[in-house]
Structures are given as structure tokens and as C-alpha cells.
Amino acid sequence: MIYLILTASKRRHRWGALASLVCVVPVVVVAFSRLYLNKHWLSDVVGGLTAATAYLLLAIWLVEVISARHAPRPVDSEGASRTRSVEAAADSHVGPTPQVGLGVGPPA
Q: What is the 3 state secondary structure string of 26-92?
């Protein structure tokens, strides 16, 4: 959550820091209270925080992958997308493609 808050707006770092603090404080307070009230063992709290962190990292990764796939492609001066012009340049290569380091080809 903090990652998404901090990367959403680059202009307002103070608000991002405040929002990060608002996100972190309840997690720390609840984790400490579970230990203080003897409702959970330390290993339970650490395991819960680890599982939550793994879930959060997976969610952030999915958001980044999905947003990258749906982002508009840059357009060059001719109006074609950059990836198409790169593919066209690769297709115009004349001659065999060199097989470097793949163990293919005549022995040296």
C-alpha cells in the first residue's frame, strides 16, 4: 500500500510520508497488542506479517504487470508504434542470424 501511495504522486512527498505512517502505525499497534495481551505467540505474529507481506508484493507485481500491458505504446514521427518499427527493422536483416554462444555451428 505504501508503495502505491508513494508512486502515485511524485509531487507531494510530505503527503506520501504521512499516508505511509497512517498505514504502518495500525499494523504495528495491532501486532504489538496481540503479543501484549497474550492472544498470539511471537511466531504467529511474525508468520502473519510475512504472509501479509508476500500477498502485498504479489498484488503490487500484478498491478504493475497489468498496467504495463495496458499502457499506450509510444508513437514515432511516422505514426507507427515503436515496437512495430523495431520489429520491422529486425525483419529487414539480411543474411543468417548469428548463433553466438548457443553451441550451434561449425566446431572451431
A: HHHHHHHHHHHCCCCCHHHHHHHHHHHHHHHHHHHHHHHHHHHHCCCCCECCCCCEHHHHHHHHHHC
